[in-house]
Amino acid sequence: MASSTGNGDGMLRNIVSGENGIRDPEPDIREDQLFVQSVARALQVLSAFHRSQSPLSLTAIAEASGVGRSAAQRVVHTLQTLGYIERDEAGRGYVPGIRLLDHTHDYLRLNPLIERATPVLLDLRRNARERIDLSLFDDLRMVYAARMQSKRETFFATLVGHSVPTLCTSGGRAVMAHLPDAEVDDIIARSDRRPFTDKTITDPAEVWERVLEARQVGYALTVEEVLVGEVALGVAVLGPSGRPLGAIHIAGSLSEWTPTAFAERFAPLASEAAYAINRVR
Amino acid sequence: MASSTGNGDGMLRNIVSGENGIRDPEPDIREDQLFVQSVARALQVLSAFHRSQSPLSLTAIAEASGVGRSAAQRVVHTLQTLGYIERDEAGRGYVPGIRLLDHTHDYLRLNPLIERATPVLLDLRRNARERIDLSLFDDLRMVYAARMQSKRETFFATLVGHSVPTLCTSGGRAVMAHLPDAEVDDIIARSDRRPFTDKTITDPAEVWERVLEARQVGYALTVEEVLVGEVALGVAVLGPSGRPLGAIHIAGSLSEWTPTAFAERFAPLASEAAYAINRVR
DNA sequence: CGCCTTGTATCGACAGACGATACAGTTATA
DNA sequence: TATAACTGTATCGTCTGTCGATACAAGGCG
């Protein structure tokens, strides 16, 4: 049941799952004088939900977060009191709490890129009539911060906070095109290579090819690398220093577009939008 | 220079500010055996940004969160290491970190209401061609969890996590219409009465009138109570037990609609959508 | 019906967080 | 230019507050 031919479903990553193939935030936490363990434990507990598709029981949280049962209990109690964790509707187990959205709001509000980008993206969506996303570059992954749907979408793919590997998304490749070679190598080397679909390109040489192409034309195009039937075009958005901070995506369906037609139609629009965002201070 | 005529700008709440008139989450935290102070401190530190419009310095965080400078320093250091706080682009001060969006994603993913509502809302937006929101009922406030823009919007009003008082929004009134009288009284009594605009209705009797009306017709309509020029229609979304969990909003501009025309056009659509969401188990 | 899992609660011991304090680097004021 | 007022960073000893162990009530399930 585990590995069959090697190209079966088991090898492909499931995009709807919380498991997005990105390693844990805590690689080798040094125990500084300044590093507060109890704070880290609290966030570990909250992070237990990253890998879950359903409400978690207390003991499930404990083992998922690698914290003792007692500690988990007390932390959960505290987080629940503060509204960061809630009981499930049905009363069976815990789910993340609504107070988390307050911090989401703070993050989005205080992110200058999002502020600059929002009006431009709304314009872009009106003109393009396809799905528009803004994703933020976070090392190995691109995190969606603003999503503007146009047609019917799968549920999970439309959520703020969803993240996909930098390696195999149009926006990620566009971002890599603006990074020094060494950093690109580094990202490719450290990235998870498991494919999402049969078309996902994860071979270092092939990825590099796409990155170089993106350097030439100013945008990156991916076809069915994350979602079957989807073509996506990404253009990087740069910070004042010229460093890429994220990317604009335009995504469409292969049932309506050929990849080349899609690129011809939307590359100018996306580039223009990215330019508008970069230009504003 | 403080209070002039009493109806000046100073009396109105600024919707773009982080200050949304909602009291702090911590009213009177009892120090249980089970309550972990250091966890609460960490979240207090993160909450310092709720009232800020710009990056905060270490000392600013300390005093905004009511935590000693030393403690704030260590907590910030930890949160930064974990990615929950970042340095500002310009290097002056701190802002919330991108890792917060991971928890946003978890919250949205694991919220069954959002899962059920998303496809319905996308349909609704396609049919209505106006802005569609899903807000979640959280005591005195309604928190926006999904936003589907259609036309140009002001930046801050479009963010996930934005919250507005239950008292004076269409969705909040629709929710109150499904609550027992005592709870409605309670909410009205505890709510902040500061108006957003000249048209904001905060008088208890008048609010009750609107709630009763919503009980009759099944929806609530607000005109310019939060944003000048905006008319909004809200319909409650119920949980399995019949308790209101949130609301669907449709919002339009008074430059295109009279309030009555807006209600006639969109009340059926919104009700139908809410019904579809309620129905699905 | 007893068994297993759920969440809740208490207590003593000692890990570890707290406040005080100090220092270096940068921006503002005299 | 001097100097004051900030920034962020770092160290240390005391004592606070968290940890693990342990126990118990309330459902759910065979």
Concise account of the structure shown:
Chain A is of the alpha+beta class.
Q: Strand percentage of chain A, roughly?
A: 15-25%
Alpha carbon gap, first and last residue of chain A: 56 Å
Number of separate strands of chain A: 8
Q: What composes the largest sheet of chain A?
A: 6 strands, antiparallel
Strand order of the largest sheet of chain A: 5-4-3-8-7-6
Question: How is this structure best described in words?
Answer:
Two copies of one chain form a homodimer. Chain A is an alpha+beta fold. Chain A is 40% helix and 17% strand. In chain A, the strands form two sheets. A six-stranded antiparallel beta sheet of chain A has the order 5-4-3-8-7-6, sandwiched between helices. Chain A has a two-stranded antiparallel sheet with strand order 1-2. In chain A, helix 1 (37-47) packs across helix 2 and helix 1 (37-47) crosses helix 3 (69-82). The N and C termini of chain A lie far apart (56 Å). The model of chain A is unreliable at 1-10 and 16-30 (pLDDT under 50). Chain A binds a DNA duplex (30 and 30 nucleotides) through residues 32-34, 36-38, 57-59, 68-71, 73-74, 77, 92-93.
